[in-house]
Amino acid sequence: MPNSSIRALLVWLLIALAEIVHGAIRRVLLVPVVGDFRAGQIGAAVGSVIILGIAFLCVRWIGANTRGALIRIGLLWLCLMLAFEVFGGRVLAGYSWTRILSDYDLRQGGLLGFGMLVLAFSPLLAARLRGLPVYSRQKRAPAPTGPTAPTSDRP
């Protein structure tokens, strides 16, 4: 696993931890005031800001500098978070599939799909917001020229 992949995984763990704390605070402070449904909608927006903020602070440290690498990191984060959400919802909280999927259904007011979309693109968005160079492909070192250049005439 390349160094940037390990760093991306560590940043995802930080995002997951931040979202756990965010969810606990939302349950204690917001749900009693506005109800579970509205708190979930507010939570999706606040969670998106948290995710983008962490990505903004960590994207330089991750070290990925191509569009493809940043998108792959975002897709890795998305897959890990979806697995985490399903595990947490089904196993830990005992939610039904209907309950879990309702958080993603725009017709039912679920905005978690929007949050997951932000998560998937947050490394690329963060790099652009930080003004980091984002290349379309990996830059290669220039080919050697002159007397040090390899030749095909040698046996």
Written description of the protein model:
With 155 residues, the chain is mainly alpha-helical. Helix content is 71%, strand content 0%. The protein has helices spanning 3-34, 36-62, 67-92, 97-102, 112-130. α1 (3-34) packs across α3 (67-92), α2 runs parallel beside α5 (112-130) and α3 (67-92) runs antiparallel to α5. The longest helix has 32 residues, at 3-34. The mean pLDDT is 88.
What is the makeup of the main sheet? none
Could you tell me the strand content as a percent range? Answer: under 5%
Number of helices: 5
Radius of gyration equals 21 Å
Which structural class best describes the helix and strand composition? Answer: mainly alpha
Termini, distance in Å?
37 Å
Helix fraction by DSSP (H/I, runs of at least 4): over 70%
Number of E-state strands: 0
N to C succession of SSEs: HHHHH
Shape: elongated
